[in-house]
Amino acid sequence: MKRLFSLLAMAFLLTFVAVNAFAQDAVQSADEQQTTEQVAEETTTPAPTQSAVPEDEVQQKKSFHYVLKEKFIEGGPGFMATVLLCLIFGLALVIERIIYLTMSTTNSDKLLGEIKAALKNGGPEKAMSICKNTRGPLASVFYEGLAKYDDGIDQVEKALGAYGSVATGNLEKGLSWIALFISLAPSLGFMGTVIGMIAAFDKISVVGEMSPAVVAGGMKVALLTTLFGLIVAVVLQVFYNYILAKIENIVIDMEDSSIEFLDIVADSMDNK
After folding, report:
1. Which of 56, 63, 146, 193 would be 222's cystine partner, CB 3.0–4.6 Å?
2. At 19, is the pLDDT very low, low, confident or very high (cuts 50, 70, 90)?
3. What is the CA radius of gyration of the chain?
4. Domain enclosing residue 138, as ranges
5. Which of 129, 128, 106, 126 is nearest to 118 (CA)?
6. Per-residue pLDDT tens for 22-49?
7. % residues pLDDT > 90 (the chain)
8. DSSP structure string for 22-56
9. For residue 116, is it within any domain?
């Protein structure tokens, strides 16, 4: 429940930021249009030495960020809103996973050294106390193994394997939802493309002729929905692969450290 609340809060924050950005652009565009109209009213005839600024030059002066949001709005509120929601919820899950995995990273060499010294000087209770006060799944796995210290090395190994699987599952939690948004965003974009094409052909049937002016609007909306669906999928895919690589590194470190941990526990039992 706490994790769900955190995800919803993060998604709400990202939604607020996106809506605020669009609102600022809308106000800026309205102000620019109003200024242009005032200048046009005040100026009856243009000066002979002045020339109109070419449209291409005006377009180049616009930032990439502004043009991207402008095209996003031109794609229509229907499917573009659903694509934006896929991006927002996907990024919320990505941020949550990255924070969790960053906090799950443990200095395994340092932890193993402390456990070895604790077993030598204070026994399994002291080693368990060190694991309990150390953050990350590796320390939790070692804690469960030390809890079976008195039952023999075989039980310690079984505890490591069982709880290691649980820890790996916790690391991978939420990845299926990120994968869902990666596949859902372009699918919604393609659906918007199909609907835009249908609308374009409806216009052709009404007008009765095939001309660029008739189908240009529908085709533009159709292509924009596909474009932004693919952009969302690419962005989330990059983060998804980064998360997978980070999980793989943590799991490999857990497996290597568990082997060394078993050797330390076996030596402690032999010297007991």
Report:
1. 193
2. very low
3. 30
4. 104-172+251-270
5. 126
6. 445 544 544 544 544 454 454 444 544 4
7. 43
8. HHHHHHHHHHHHHHHHHHHHH-SS--TT--PPPHH
9. yes
Q: Is 90 contained in some domain?
A: no
DSSP output for the chain: -HHHHHHHHHHHHHHHHHHHHHHHHHHHHHHHHHHHHHHHHH-SS--TT--PPPHHHHHHHS-HHHHHHHHHHHT-HHHHHHHHHHHHHHHHHHHHHHHHHHHH---HHHHHHHHHHHHHHT-HHHHHHHHHTS-SHHHHHHHHHHHTGGG-HHHHHHHHHHHHHHHHHHHTTTHHHHHHHHHHHHHHHHHHHHHHHHHHHHHHHHH-S--HHHHHHHHHHHHHHHHHHHHHHHHHHHHHHHHHHHHHHHHHHHHHHHHHHHHHHHHHHHT-
Q: Looking at the 3D structure of the chain, how many domains does it have?
A: 1
Distance of alpha carbon 254 from alpha carbon 256, whole angstroms: 6
In a domain, 160, yes or no: yes
In a domain, 263, yes or no: yes
| 218-228 tens-digit pLDDT | 677 677 788 88
